[in-house]
C-alpha cells in the first residue's frame, strides 16, 4: 500500500499516523540506537506500517494484481499495484470514511506540518511536496497516478517503465477495482485488530 492507505489505516491516533507515514524511512530494529529519537507511540505506527506491508505482500488477491503486471514490470510490479490501490482508495474514499478525501487530506497535511520535527529531516522534501501539491487528491486522478509513478521511476537505478503503467490501469480498471474491493476491507479489519492490541497494551 502507498501513503494514503497507510495513513488512513492508522485510525484516529496522531502518533500512529506519524509513525505509519515514517515507515519506509526507518530501517532496522526499532530498539537500535539509531532509532532512539522515536517515541514509543510513534514506534507503534511504524510497527503497524510494517504489518500492513507484510499482510499486503502475502495476500492472494494482491498477488493476483501483481501477477498481471509482472511480465511487463517484473520486480516493480508490486510498486505499481501499491500506487494503483491508493488510486482506487482515493476514488472510493467515501465508502470507507465519513470525511471526504479533501477534508481528510487537509487535516492530515495540517498534522504533518505541525509535527515535522518528530520525523527525520530526510522526509522534509517529501512532506513539503505532499502538502503543497496535495498528493492525496492527486491520487484520485490518472494524472496524479502518472506523476507519482514517474517520481518513483526517477528514484530507481534502472529502467523500469513504470511511468507508463497508468495505461495498464485504464485497460484493466474493473479487474483492479474488483480485487481492491475484496482485499481492502480485510486489511481494515486486520489493522483494527492491531490497533486494539496496541491500545490495550497501554492500559
From TrEMBL:
The keyword Lipid biosynthesis applies. It holds the Pfam family ACP_PD. InterPro entries: ACP_PD. It comes from the Bacteria. Keywords: Hydrolase, Lipid biosynthesis, Lipid metabolism. This is ACP phosphodiesterase. It comes from Arcicella aquatica. The lineage of its organism: Bacteria, Pseudomonadati, Bacteroidota, Cytophagia, Cytophagales.
